[in-house]
Amino acid sequence: MTLKFGLAALALVALPSFALAAGCNYGKDKQAMSCVDGTSWDSATNSCQPVTSS
Q1: Backbone dihedral region for residue 44 (phi beyond 0: left; psi -120 to 50: alpha; all else: beta)
Q2: Which residues of the chain have pLDDT under 70?
Q3: Rg, the chain, Cα only
Q4: Which of these, 36, 37, 38, lies nearest to 53 by C-alpha position?
Q5: Cα–Cα distance measured from residue 14 to residue 20, given in angstroms and rounded to the nearest whole number
Q6: Residue-wise DSSP of the chain
Q7: How far, in Å, CA of 33 to CA of 46, rounded?
């Protein structure tokens, strides 16, 4: 009985620290896309497309 109580207390103390270790950046970690010279990012195809000048 004491072992179960001790493990439950340890879990209640440790779990919030694991949640904080994950950070508050959920969904905010977007990386900027960069394309080589002569191309630009096309969001419709999600790829770099050659720039055509008219």
Answers
A1: alpha
A2: 18-33, 54
A3: 24
A4: 38
A5: 10
A6: -HHHHHHHHHHHHHHHHHHHHH-S-TTT-PPPP---TTEEEETTTTEEEE----
A7: 10
Output the six-digit token pair for 3: 């072992």
Maximum Cα–Cα distance across the chain: 80
The full length of the chain comes to: 54
Give me the pLDDT at residue 31, please.
Answer: 66
> Which two three-digit tokens encode residue 2?
């004491």
Contact predicate 51/39, CB 8 Å: yes
